[in-house]
Design brief:
6-stranded parallel β-sheet, single chain, Rossmann fold, 391 residues, 13 strands, globular, 7-stranded mixed β-sheet
Length: 391
């Protein structure tokens, strides 16, 4: 074990994120393997399931879970979720401070406070100034364009941006998910034009097993929070044509969210079988479902208000872990990698293109499958995440 690794494994880290992204790209698993003490806060924003509404703080020591604390969660009816967002944010902030006082007494002052959210990063800088943590790290995951058809959502996005700027400027170490996020902030004057920042993408954890047989009824999978901006409507809009091509096909939907009931209603008239698995916290069960499927779909709607344009597709990284070719839209920067490596097909958001992409992948499945796995091997998470925390 080299000195750098030894020093890291003796350190403690506070990690704060929102469900269901707390282990996106296996980031939590990485922290558990690299830090002796991990204090993980997971807050809920979307209603994912009836049993998963409570936020939690978990204490891990040497990779083992020692304590679980259930945090207060303010129930939020869908129609007023954004209206009471400021109240929920205050509750989150107060709980972070309260538990960090407890953590300091139990473990001493944590070495690092780490998050991917601007508001939570802003909270981290405050607790650092209160000497409840030593150093803050902000891995910038997103940008929410201050444009939306809903004026309340637009205002809340503007409000979120008021935390983004000071969080990026005051955090001890800032790392970005992609170059788009850096270029945007430079363009609007938030970052110095000549400054350079590290870029670390969502990682993968590829499996070497490729044993799927495409010459059976196709299984599609959609993983993620169920909201209309994720583009799942295109599957149901295309279902009649897909059924005429492969009538025994099945769509597996993994996840919960604000539009869960909407999509369940759409499935009632769908000519293809649709299985709603709901939100599954057990990642091994999620992997088991994905592994048995043939095509991963991520048809994000290419809209100016869609924050996905500035993000990194954790669901696609999850698909290609298992050699699943992908059908997606040209929304995020990773689309060019999918296209260049022929690990799937990038389409405009329309049903004709969607159905054609499915047929193309089916006709050349072995090639797309191997390419998907090969692409995944370029982003193995253990090779990427150390750069987030480098001094």
């Amino acid at each position: 074990m080299n000195m750098k690794t030894f020093k890291r494994k003796t350190k403690s880290i506070v990690y704060v994120n929102f469900a269901p992204y707390e282990n996106a790209g296996r980031i939590l698993d990485y922290l558990l393997s690299e830090y002796s003490t991990v204090l993980s806060f997971t807050f809920n924003f979307h209603r994912l399931s009836g049993s998963r509404d409570r936020s939690v703080m978990k204490e891990y020591v040497n990779g083992r879970l020692k304590h679980t604390h259930f945090l207060y969660y303010l129930p939020t009816p869908k129609n007023i979720a954004f209206l009471i967002l400021p109240i929920r944010s205050i509750i989150i902030f107060l709980q972070i401070i309260t538990y960090l006082f407890m953590i300091k007494k139990r473990y001493g002052t944590p070495d690092i406070y780490f998050t991917v959210n601007a508001f939570i990063a802003w909270c981290g800088n405050i607790v650092r100034n209160l000497h409840l943590v030593k150093k803050t790290v902000f891995w910038v995951w997103d940008y929410y364009p201050p444009v939306h058809s809903d004026k309340i959502v637009m205002f809340m996005r503007w409000l979120y941006w008021q935390f983004d700027k000071p969080a990026g400027q005051d955090t001890d170490r800032v790392v970005f998910l992609n170059k788009r996020l850096i270029q945007l902030r430079k363009k609007i004057g938030v970052l110095p034009l000549r400054a350079s920042y590290p870029v670390v993408e969502i990682g993968t954890d590829p499996t070497a097993s490729l044993q799927k047989n495409p010459f059976i009824p196709l299984s599609y999978v959609f993983l993620g929070v169920l909201k209309k901006s994720q583009g799942l409507d295109i599957f149901f809009d295309s279902a009649k044509d897909l059924a005429s091509y492969n009538p025994e096909g099945t769509l597996h939907v993994i996840g919960g969210g604000p539009d869960f009931e909407y999509f369940k209603k759409r499935a009632l008239s769908c000519p293809l079988k649709v299985i709603f698995h709901g939100y599954i916290p057990d990642e091994s069960k999620v992997n088991s479902i994905i592994r048995k499927c043939h095509i991963g779909i991520a048809p994000y709607i290419p809209d100016g208000s869609n924050c996905t344009y500035f993000s990194d597709p954790s669901k696609i990284k999850r698909y290609i872990n298992f050699g699943l070719p992908v059908v997606t839209t040209n929304v995020f920067s990773f689309s060019k990698n999918i296209k260049a490596d022929k690990a799937g097909i990038v389409i405009p958001y329309d049903t004709v293109s969607f159905v054609h992409a499915v047929k193309q992948i089916y006709a050349h499945y072995d090639t797309y499958q191997k390419n998907a796995l090969h692409l995944a091997k370029n982003y193995i998470f253990t090779n990427l995440y150390g750069k987030i925390f480098e001094a």
